[in-house]
Amino acid sequence: MALRQAIRRRGAFLRPAFWKPRFSASCASVSPCSASSCCSSASSSCSARTEPSSFMMASNSFPAASTLDTNPEHNPNHSDATASSLGWPSPAATAADRAVKEGARNDWSREEIQAIYDSPLLDLIYHGAQVHRHAHKFREVQQCTLLSIKTGGCSEDCAYCPQSSRYKTDVKAQKLLSPDVVLEAARKAKEAGSTRFCMGTAWRDSIGRKTNFNQILEYVKEIRGMGMEVCCTLGMLEKQQAEALKEAGLTAYNHNLDTSREYYPKIITTRTYDERLQTLQFVRDAGISVCSGGIIGLGEAAEDRVGLLHTLATLPQHPESVPINALLAVKGTPLENQKPVEIWEMVRMIATARIVMPKSMVRLSAGRVRFSVPEQALCFMAGANSIFTGEKLLTTPNNDFNADQEMFKLLGLIPKAPNFDQGTCSCNSEEEHSEHVVAAQ
Ligand code: SF4
């Protein structure tokens, strides 16, 4: 008898998170309580504790931390102290719950993001998925094709990059690709299912490159005319250049922060972190979507990965796209001997990015070629919803196109349609948007 009671009590305590009431007396809607304050406040008004329904389990609204049965009145064995000694709910659960209820926020402390990042991995993945499904159509994955239109011979010293003229690598400097080559590549990418075409140049900036810059403006117009989103990564921009790109129809501009502010000088010395942020601001001001993320595996510590996410997640507006790259160490670069990034590091980074920037497209970028389909599936589960397709990522190899199509079929993923709302912000209201605009000025 005593044993049976103990099992019953323990069973209640160990009840999985999704075992929550289908509807409570105070939740009038069909919603499975995720937005209701009655459960989140562990209120005793919730009287309808039932078993999980198939509706709840199939719903896009995953249960949140606040729906965990931590109410002592429902479970006399439970106490806050017991829960916290088990690390439950985890910081990932708590932050995901808040993201689902309140949407994107940009007042993160670094400690908060570190705690999410350090949450137990499976919990982090689960809650990354929760936020992902709330903010996005979880089957949709954006396919972008990246073409290096001006390869090699770059004056910068990015320690990971084979295109820097400072390192002896196999990459040969080339001139800007001609219109027929670029436009044909864009057409092929479109035929293959890509909705975004990105063009990269190995430049510090485009100052003094008027002819080439004007040529790129033409590429942007032409490719936009094909019905594709167009993205460029041309190094640092001036305000007027950002405006000209916007005028030409550019959808997004990529300029990665690479790593944390603290670790950055160990990777690049030829331009500053603040210069990078300034370019992002010009892009934002011009009304172009911001694409900015970083690279893991540069020899940085976990705190630097958190620092990168903290900088991105506390920008007045989150970047619309956040590429997460795993270093592909290239012979001849200072980082040639870095050990490959483990899938678990990638998944942890993606899930944390998803929770702290719920509405951004989180892109599983360079390094994907090293991950198996099951490993990539974990990344999609954790919240990634964008990939690069095509033979190469600038100069490094990328996944086989047919293999990607097979993977989509296998995992039930579908290509995301293009979105031409340039610079669409992730604010939750007009009021919030006005505050961001003021903060950015
Ligand atoms: S990452 Fe870009 S800026 Fe840095 S060396 Fe390579 S091409 Fe140049």
UniProtKB/TrEMBL annotation:
Known pathway: Cofactor biosynthesis; biotin biosynthesis; biotin from 7,8-diaminononanoate: step 2/2
InterPro entries assigned: Aldolase_TIM, BATS_dom, Biotin_synth/BioAB, Biotin_synthase, Elp3/MiaA/NifB-like_rSAM, rSAM, rSAM_sf
Entry EC no(s): 2.8.1.6
One BP term from GO: biotin biosynthetic process
Cofactor(s) required for function per UniProt: [4Fe-4S] cluster; [2Fe-2S] cluster
GO molecular function, one term: 4 iron, 4 sulfur cluster binding
UniProt keyword annotations, A-Z: 2Fe-2S, 4Fe-4S, Biotin biosynthesis, Iron, Iron-sulfur, Metal-binding, S-adenosyl-L-methionine, Transferase
Keyword Metal-binding included in the entry's annotation: yes
Region listing for Disordered, in residue ranges: 65-90
Gene Ontology annotations for the cellular component aspect, listed alphabetically: mitochondrion
Feature: compositional bias, Polar residues: 78-87
Xref: SMART domains: BATS (SM00876), Elp3 (SM00729)
SUPFAM superfamilies linked: Radical SAM enzymes
Domain Radical SAM core span(s) in chain numbering: 139-368
Top-level enzyme category: transferase
Pfam families cross-referenced by the UniProt entry: BATS (PF06968), Radical_SAM (PF04055)
HAMAP family assigned: BioB (MF_01694)
NCBIfam families, A to Z: bioB
Protein family per UniProt: Belongs to the radical SAM superfamily. Biotin synthase family.
Official protein name in the record: biotin synthase
Organism expressing this protein natively: Ceratopteris richardii (Triangle waterfern)
